[in-house]
Structures are given as structure tokens and as C-alpha cells.
């Protein structure tokens, strides 16, 4: 996609913790104004203090389309049109057969992982800078099914298909704008991974190590063609 000027705003959802918080800190470290959202007010206050002035860290639930729309309008008004939007917010439940997965857990998984990508696409695609990129954070389990994580697998397969569809719409209606689904590139030791892989998560690098590679990849190396591609961040431990 070509290197972004460091004055160009970057949007990331789910910045309360994990990959989103690490990306927000790394983008800011590289000089980009960051617009981030999440639900944990205390964690967002800490992130806001860490980043300092010139960023917009907002309490907003990605399943609330009106809240995300308001956040997008505020982002453009205060920081300018973003050239990179990362729909990162995610949810995963413990491993369990689908017949033991509660309706509430299944619904939350779909709402956060799928509806949350939709609300960002709805709010930010019309506002993205010319030639910008919309990234939906996917998963290897959105390409290869994982038993006992059927809800998460279903949600990430949906993200992959949704991204390909909006890429077609962008090609027709938003020339130069790219939409891609990006697998983080292997396990990252986050709270989410600990939830579903409690005995394995510590074997993987942490979010900060991952973000040093991922931020550069998302800023500079996401290809413009083919639009709608399913991509993978280079593994920082490879």
C-alpha cells in the first residue's frame, strides 16, 4: 500500500487490551495520530495517558452502530480522514462442544466479531482517505475450522466473506480503497488466547512483540491487489 505519512490518522477498535492496545501504542510511537475505542473505561484512561495529546481514545461498544458512527464523525473532525482502519475488537469463549456453548456466548461472539466489523465498515469506509485500507482482523480459525471453538470459527469465516464482499463494493464505489482480512500470523499471548488455550498461551510471544511487526506490515506492506485478499501478518517469532 506504500508507506503512510506519519501525520496520517490510524483507527483501531478494541484498544482496551491485547492486540488493539499494543497496536495503538506502536502506531503512536511511530508518529501516527490514533483513534481508538473500547469498553473498559479504566484501561482506556490508562492508554490515553500513555499516548498523550493528539490522539482520540473513546469509550464505544463496536456492537452499537450509532456509537461507532459518532466516534467516526468525531475522528474525522478532530484528526482527519484515516488512511488505515483496523477492525480489531474480538471475543472468544472457552473451548467447548457447540451443544455446551450457551446461546449468550454464541450471540456475543457473533455480535463482537461480525457486527463489530460491520459497524466499523459502515462508519469509516465512506470517510476513509483516498487510497486507504480497511483491515478486518481475522484468524487462522477463520480459514481452517477448529472444533470446540465453533462459534469463533463461524464468526471469523463470516468476517472473511464479509471483507471480500465489501472489497467488491469499494472497487465499484470507493476507487483506490482496499479491504482485506488479516490473520495475526499465529498465536499471540493475550487474554483471549488464554481463555481458549489455557494450557498453551504462554508459549507464544506477547502483544508488544507482535505489534512491532504487525504495525509496520499494516502501514507499509498490505498489498493493494487483489482487493479483498486474505492475508497473514509475518510471524515475529519465525
Give an account of the 3D structure.
Belongs to the short-chain dehydrogenases/reductases (SDR) family. The protein has 238 residues and is α/β, with parallel strands linked by helices. The protein has a single domain, classed as Rossmann fold, CATH 3.40.50.720. It contains 7 helices and 7 strands. It has helices at residues 18-29, 41-51, 65-78, 103-124, 150-173, 191-196, 207-221; strands spanning 10-13, 34-38, 56-59, 84-87, 133-137, 178-183, 230-232. α5 (150-173) links the parallel β5 (133-137) and β6 (178-183). The radius of gyration is 16 Å and the shape is globular. The two termini are 23 Å apart. The mean pLDDT is 92.
What general form does the structure show? globular
CATH level 4 superfamily: NAD(P)-binding Rossmann-like Domain
Q: How many structural domains can be distinguished in the coordinates?
A: 1
Gyration radius (Cα, Å) is: 16 Å
The main sheet comes to:
7 strands, parallel
Kindly state the percentage of residues in helix.
Answer: 40-55%
Which regions have little confidence, pLDDT < 50, spanning 5+ residues? Answer: none
- Count of DSSP-assigned helices: 7
Number of strands: 7
Instruction: Spell out the helices and strands N to C.
Output: EHEHEHEHEHEHHE
What's the mean pLDDT score?
92
Sheet/helix structural class: alpha/beta
Strand arrangement, major sheet:
3-2-1-4-5-6-7
CATH fold-level topology: Rossmann fold
- Distance N terminus to C terminus? 23 Å
CATH architectural group:
3-Layer(aba) Sandwich
